[in-house]
Amino acid sequence: MENPILITFSGGRTSAFMARLLSEMPKYKNKLIVFANTGKEKEATLRFVNECDKRWNLGVVWVEADVTQEKGTGTEPKIVTFETADRSGGPFKDVISKYGLPSKKFRHCTRELKEVPIHKYAKKVLGKDYLTAVGIRADEPHRLGKKPNYIYPLAEMGFTEEIIRRWWDKQDFNLELKDYQGNCDLCFLKSKRKRLTILSENPSISEWWQAMEETYGNDRQPIFDVRSNLSIQDLVEQSKVAFQKVEDKHELRSRQATMFDPDMDIEFDCFCKMT
Q1: Which of 27, 54, 179, 253 registers the highest number of CB atoms within 10 A of its CB?
Q2: Can you tell me the distance from the alpha carbon of 165 to that of 234, in angstroms, rounded to the nearest whole number?
Q3: Which residues pair with 66 in a beta bridge?
Q4: What is the pLDDT of residues 81-100, one digit of tens each?
Q5: Listed residue (230, 193, 245, 219) closest to 104, CA to CA
Q6: Residue 264 falls within a domain, yes or no?
Q7: Residue 266 forms part of a structural domain
Q8: How far apart, in whole angstroms, are the C-alpha atoms of residue 256 and residue 275?
Q9: Domain-located, residue 125
Q10: Which of 159, 177, 195 is the last residue of a domain?
């Protein structure tokens, strides 16, 4: 008998593709699909998760981190819906209030906002012996981990970002975000160029993040981005200066394919050709 499977739905195109694919495979009949909302996902992400769920009858469970500020008391999963999901950054703020600003070195945001609530809920529903499917693709070998009971079906089946994006091009709905915008709107793990591009497109995104730095920053962790040592205000100022913006990779590939399409340059000699 196959182990039950937890399918983690991040809210992006890849994990949506994986959820659809695995939900149609008989060996994954005993499954649970969970989406964890941090309060900093874009509205387009929330709409996309809801649309995938309704169209494909996935039965997605929406959870949020229920953070108790009392020391020694762990985060619990709180069940929400598309309608009741936090849009103000509330769960994320609660984590920061308790654990401080996260960074590349201290990624308690991922731990408390995603991993803990998802797996605590999964254990209640599936028991302890379940597999966790993660949407890492064949073109992301550097991301493949060796955690016990974790599987990477897309990588194993050879699915790449380009294949999945082409599949989405054929659907009658899609995630209304560029690939560089991602889900967590100004995550410090994004490249500097991506964050500057995002800020140049929507400067107001900085307000929540700057408020968190001003309220919860301290000598040990004054800002989110200790990697490049840039505060949110630094990024805002740099986004106002001309720089080369990042582009959606799939859209860029599509333009290049058209630009260098050999069929566009085929011609045949004719008697009247003026050469």
Answers
A1: 179
A2: 34
A3: 76
A4: 999 999 999 999 999 999 99
A5: 230
A6: no
A7: no
A8: 29
A9: yes
A10: 177
